[in-house]
Amino acid sequence: MKRKQAGELSKKFGLNVVQSRYSDWGNFYGLVQSYPCALWDRSGYIIFENEDALKIPGVSIAKKINVPKGISSLNGYKQVIHDIQPPEELPDGVEYYEGAVQQIKVNRYERDKKARDACLSHYGYVCQVCHVKLSDIYGAIAENLIHVHHIKPISEIGESYIVDPVTDLIPVCPNCHAVIHSKSPPYAPQEVSAMLHNDRTVEL
Length: 204
Ligand SMILES: [Zn+2]
Ligand SMILES: [Zn+2]
What we know:
By secondary structure, this protein is α+β, with helices and mostly antiparallel strands. It has helices at about 1-10, 110, 115-125, 135-140, 175-180, 190-195; strands at about 20, 30, 35-40, 45-50, 60, 65, 80, 145-150, 170. The longest helix is centred in the N-terminal third of the chain and has 11 residues, at about 1-10. It binds zinc ion (ZN) (2 copies). One zinc ion binds near residues 127, 129, 173 and 175.
């Protein structure tokens, strides 16, 4: 399905490529077999003329291509899709975080890369609900593993709304984020904090 989606996007935007691949977050792809190739994320694409062109900092090629920061972080990326709607306003347009402990609906403010980066540079990669830093538990592999939650309910947002990365967004771990979104409208972060049992004993 994703392969078909990538091919259709390349056709739609008239790209002269032999192969196309797609990933929502632009960070993980099957290996490319033929060139030129277009890698797509949800809002744009980048073209690689040959395998050597992929051998750049920020990209690793093993059995799969891995671009941890997403293709939108690479020179040559072109954004062509701007109309990503908040899923809360589109009953059928459900978007999910990939790879979360539990799949949850998120809105576009939680997926906006610039706002997300600004939020994380203010708060760091520490869950603001349970105060866990995932790299403290799992090590370096989890260093960038965090979600960004948008606090303001979509229903309270007017047309001229501009997200404030510090007051409107907070970093949360995938577990707390799943709990926050376990009802609609979501729980307030403080409500989920209050659910945490500080005296629990964990048996390993
Ligand atoms: Zn947490
Ligand atoms: Zn959220």
